[in-house]
Amino acid sequence: MLAWLGEALLTLLAVFGVVCVVAVIAAYFFGINIMLFKTGSMSPEIPAGSVALVRTIPASEAEVGDVVMVDRPGQLPVTHRVVSNEPDPANSPEGRIIEMKGDANNQPDPFPYHVDEVKLLFWSQPGWGHAVARLADPRTLGLVTVVVAGLVTWAFWPRRPEGENV
Fold first, then answer.
1. Which of 24, 31, 39, 137 could form a disulfide with 56 if both were Cys (CB 3.0 to 4.6 A apart)?
2. Which candidate, 81, 83, 77, places its Cα nearest to that of 36?
């Protein structure tokens, strides 16, 4: 019974590992990133503590109503809903002037953003941000590393043939 349970656990962990590797490769090739919401400016749809997946797109593809993240030089990025998206040929041929507003804010952001690309939010889950942040904690990573190393060692440790005594 215990051997069967161990084999099932190892199989489950192996499948999880393969899924993680495939997810990392897909994220790299499709430009997908994870982001955590620390403020409530996008509430109620995306409250503080949410986790979201975003992918990089040309700014010209962002439509009014889309939730996008824009980078700001020397500051943290901002993630709000697009209010307007106009060409900005003065800065670059692909450049856009995007005005945004947080769902929980009464007014649009004070200044428009001059950008060539944005990160489009395509999935979010409220409440998962804290768990994702915990996974990035060095103590959690250390514990997971020790547990996985122990399981791998146990899986490949030489076994005695059945009925052999020491």
1. 31
2. 77
pTM, two decimals, is: 0.75
pLDDT at 50 (0 to 100): 94
Q: Is residue 157 included in any domain, yes or no?
A: no
Q: Which two tokens mark 166? A: 């020491």
In a domain, 71, yes or no: yes
Question: Which domain CATH number covers 76?
Answer: 2.10.109.10
Nearest-CA neighbor of 125 among 29, 35, 22, 27? 35
Q: How many CB atoms lie within 10 A of CB 41?
A: 19
**Radius of gyration (C-alpha) of the chain in whole angstroms:** 23
Domain ranges, residue 108 = 32-149
Decide if 35 contacts 79 (C-beta within 8 A). yes
Query: Is residue 27 situated within a structural domain?
Result: no
Domain-embedded: residue 19: no
Total of domains in the chain? 1
User: 86-139: per-residue pLDDT in tens?
Assistant: 998 787 888 999 999 999 999 999 999 999 999 999 999 999 888 888 888 889
